[in-house]
Fold each of these.
Amino acid sequence: MGASDHTTRLPIVVLVSGSGSLLAALIEASAEPAYGLEIVGVGADRPDIEGLRRAERAGIPTFVCRVQDYPTRAEWDDAMAQHLADVIPSVGTAEIPGVGHRWVISAGFMKVLGPSVLAAFTVLNTHPALLPAFPGAHAVREALAYGACVTGATVHLVDAGVDTGPIVAQRAVPIRTFDTEDSLHERIKTVERDLLVRTAHDIITDGFTQSGRKVTLA
Ligand code: GRF
């Protein structure tokens, strides 16, 4: 991890859609002040999920923003941006020296974020495959079906596409002969949790530069 001076903990919002084991890893890491990040909110696109319950048990404020509650996808995106802005006000982060981004971590969030969110926030996403191979919602199943010998986890910046944003970090996971989708996904998630915790710390606390698709950590 980077070696910046973490006198200020930087606010992040985490988005989830399911069990939230990646969120749990971030909650555990951020309990240590030296980690430098504070989860100030957890959002979801559906209610009654373990990810939200994990946040509530940790005393973190939550919100739910369901696509079906809005007439159009664009209005859902506007509502998401408003929810996020309520949790990370721009004035608050602008007052923190050296912080040029308002950060959101998409950690198992299964919706594509739209232009309103992406204009106001820098979003880090984690994906259970070695992008650009196997983008989309069924990455583990598709890697197995394809007969790949190696897959893995990718942490990347989010752009307007589906899992197409610039790659920040990747780690490989071998596929075993008798793997099922569940066994492989569990092994990937073990790697993914550590990769996300480390990469989020490094890019958010120490910063990065970007040239085209190439992201370089400071
Ligand atoms: C992760 O593999 C993530 O990349 C994928 O869904 C999984 C989420 O796991 N999109 P959890 O809900 O954090 O346990």
Note: The beta strands are 10-16, 37-44, 62-64, 103-106, 122-127, 150-157, 167-174, 208-211, 214-217.
Amino acid sequence: MNALPPPFEKPPAAVAAALRPIRPLPDELVSQIAAGEVIERPASVVRELIDNALDAGARQITVRLQAGGVRAIVVEDDGGGIAAADLPLALQRHATSKIASLADLENVATMGFRGEALAAIASIADVTVISRTPAASHAIALQARTGELAAAARGVGTSVDVRELFFSTPARRKFLKTDATELAHCVEAVRRHALVRPEVAFAIWHEGKLVEQWRAADSMAQRVRDVLGAAFIEASVAVDAPAARPGTISLRGFAGIPDAARSRADQQYVYVNGRFVRDRLIAHGARSAYEDVLHGQRQPVYVLFVATDPRRVDVNVHPTKIEVRFRDGREVHQAVRHAIESALAHPRAAAGSTPAAADAASPLREASAAAPPLVLRSGWETVVARRQPLSLDDLSTLRVEEPAAPWPAASAPLAAQQAPQPVPAWPLGRAIAQLGGVYILAENTQGLVIVDMHAAHERIVYERLKAAANSVAMQAQALLVPCTFAATALEIATAQAEALTLQELGLDVTPIGPTQLAVRSLPAALADADPAALARSVLAELQQPGGASRAVQRARDDILATMACHGAVRANRQLTISEMNALLRDMERTERSDQCNHGRPTWRAVTLKELDTLFLRGR
Ligand code: ADP
Ligand code: MG
């Protein structure tokens, strides 16, 4: 593109080589080339060998490593083994027991299917395979380098012993990191398998020391807890979205709450039909589910098991099978987004989500559940219809309509009122004070709850605006004067291809020449938006994976969020105890109320136990 390269003195080596006659490459070299794609580091070997063990039906897999796996990787399993006669074939290129036809490939249910891994590994390391089938009287060992077969001792199953990885390809060896780093990658490779196969026990040893061990678990939740820790489970919500129709996509797993997000995307485990994948579409769908509760660069954490008809996903698109291709990407994107979005919508501040409130028999809890909802809807709808920023007056008139009893002390016998008041089972407890004009302090059965009143109220107002706006948001409102603007060829093509989607969004965007688009209508909720800017951003969204339908909603949400911020109670405003209680009850039933519109937490809890520790009590 820039300056021309200097003229060659001599033709470069590549040009000279092209003049040689064409010859097939020797088998060994073909395998080494394949290994270059599949085996990047010791962890790649671990991944391939565990794939094989799982395909063989293993229930116990042990990985033994030396020097981060560079010196030795031994994977032992108790699977079905390899018959003596087949053993040499296992190491041959393109020899597999897993598929036999193109139809099999389209329906593949095993981890492996190319018959390439063992051959590739044997071309760049010293490999010995020891295996025994249930029918065999003893095990057989095959030394890959020499082809030597010998009787060996082991139970039913297979051990693959890989020594001196990359010994013949020193260039590759130079790319390896420290033993500790390579070990960490190996452990991560096992972890990825372990998460999706709870029924299989895994152990990892390094230099004779046990590094990790996961016993067979009887549930996915248990295995996730074992592998990622109790903290991961406690800071996440279950995702469970069964297939809408037979053969369509289903999702299970755990999505971390916004508070659990990290600065790096290093805890995002996605599986498609049991295979760990990195998929842009799914990652984008998941991130967009967090859009409304997680702002900035924070990365959500999740473990997602996506299941779909194997014929609707191509797993044969990447050498290490870490990428897949979906027949219907849009369906996948939406399914992922919806499943996570609805899992996250339920606030943790809601009844039933804390241990104290889980006591369903509690009359207090029933009383709270039976309390009439605040009648704010009609007021907000008026406000939305007027499309004006909310004033504090609007709020105060709306907020006074709280449940008759701020907490159900009325149901307690009169005598009890002399004694210290019982703490209601409401998750966010009862308000006791306002602090610094900013925080509400409340007492629940666990201890102290601190609420950022502006942040919390902002979310409540925002969610209410969204609910009120939903019904009318997408109706088209014609512009008195169409707005024309200069557009790129891609924008014009997108406007034509997505005309129907645009229409559904209430947007009429049509080409009026080779370089011009005209906007004739806008969604009613955004009637005040700049038509050209909105059309441009919607068209840009439509070019994104799964972008359709997201754009207008996002633009609308932005406007509503701004309105909500104006509408929410300001700092330094004195609230009465019953106003505070009304806000707490509102939080408990508002979706996404654990985060404000900017993704910050709206409340924190300090348990009595933590307070005891703070005061060195009970030591
Ligand atoms: P693929 O897994 O794609 O078939 P591999 O090169 O990984 O290719 O393995 C070749 C064959 O060796 C497999 O198809 C399988 O029959 C056999 N094999 C490899 N590892 C094991 C194992 N641990 N237990 C039983 N059979 C195995
Ligand atoms: Mg394999």
Note: Residues 48, 51-52, 112, 117 surround magnesium ion (ligand 2) (CB under 6 Å).
